[in-house]
């Protein structure tokens, strides 16, 4: 994989006249309480290019899934059941998705998503977090950065 990655980086950098690594840092992921937060996370992601002043509307960013979700552009990617749930009719579902973007994300939701992104914490309410703690026998919200310390014994 290392050889493939370095060859691809060479090709990519040469093709796009850039330097450096393509993929940096550790992969991070977070569980999402889908019934409440999946669409919020989708809005957060699809609004990132707007917030970063790269585009003025989410549909202007060509790497976004916004055109698929809001306007029904064809895609091989299958929608999540929480996205598909609001309406069986594709046009009505796309309209409902576009309507979500007329409202700002709350500061609470933005903070929750950013905290999850930084510390790999779940995105959900307290009941969701407690269920995860009980199921896996862990305590969330008290994670220190870096590798766990070696236990000498």
Brief overview:
By secondary structure, the protein is mainly α.
Notes on the protein architecture:
The protein is 50% helix and 0% strand. It is an all-alpha fold and 153 residues long. The chain has one domain. The longest helix is centred in the first third of the chain and has 18 residues, at 34-51. The model has no long low-confidence stretch (mean pLDDT 85).
| Helix-strand string | HHHHHHH
Structural category: mainly alpha
Coarse morphology = globular
Extract low-pLDDT stretches: none
Q: Total domains, how many?
A: 1
Strand fraction: under 5%
* Beta-strand segment tally: 0
Largest sheet: none
Average of pLDDT: 85
Count of helix runs: 7
Measured between the Cα atoms of the first and last residue, the distance is 36 Å
Range of helix content: 40-55%
Rg is: 19 Å
List the helices and strands and how they pair.
Layout: H1 2-15, H2 34-51, H3 66-71, H4 81-84, H5 90-100, H6 107-119, H7 126-136
